[in-house]
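Fill-in record for Transmembrane protein 56-B.
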Amino acid sequence: MNNLQCGLASFVFFLYFYKHMSPALSGRIPKFNRLTKDEKTEWHARNASTLHAVVVTLLAMYVLLFEEHLRRDIIWGRSTLSECSLSICVGYLLSDLYLIFTNYEAVGGTVGFIIHHCVSAYAYVYGLSGSVLLPVANFRLLAEMSTPFVNLRWALSTTGNKDSELYFYNGLLLTFSFFISRILPMPFFYYMVISVQSLDSYSRVSLPCHISWIGVCMVLDVMNLMWFKKIMSGILTHVIKRSKASETPPATHNGTAHKIE
């Protein structure tokens, strides 16, 4: 299966998952059946998002950990699996863009998501078409590590579990995973961006490619910083709320607090 076929298969699969598989599985969850039509639509879109994130994160981890020849040549190194992971991602991004354009409000579409999907798909297609910087592209895929926690947070909030322990600890995991996969690598990544340009093999990289991959990474990282600010704001608000709730003494029938022995 070539990259185009893999991408098309991914596109079709994620649309099928959204339209048929997720509804069949979600119908077994009691709270799902009480959601509005638009909430159910976004639920299915987020389920597809979570599945995609798990698949490409695992594939990217395998590529980066076990395909040593890619680490030796991060510019022109290639493998079937490194191309497959990117093709799957492109197929998913296009399927999600289709859902956003056809169900903009129902799936929680935003201009930010459209920009993110378009620039990401452009970069991955560019890399696949020229077989260039595939290891770097797979490294960027690790950012999807935080996506399942984002989607679970939305699901818990939508089903009325915002005050649950699971919601709180998922928020901590979301913050941690987002930080280690998107924020912490930034200085190391851009140091690599500068260093790799001194390699002899980089001289074969065209100017459009040079501008594209660095420009796309900068756009995505600006968005990541903006999203991380929102995540930190949300988690701090929730921590403060929990702290105040724990400090409030339980009331008795006569209006006084029970003394804790």
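KEY FINDING: The chain is about 75% helix and 0% strand.
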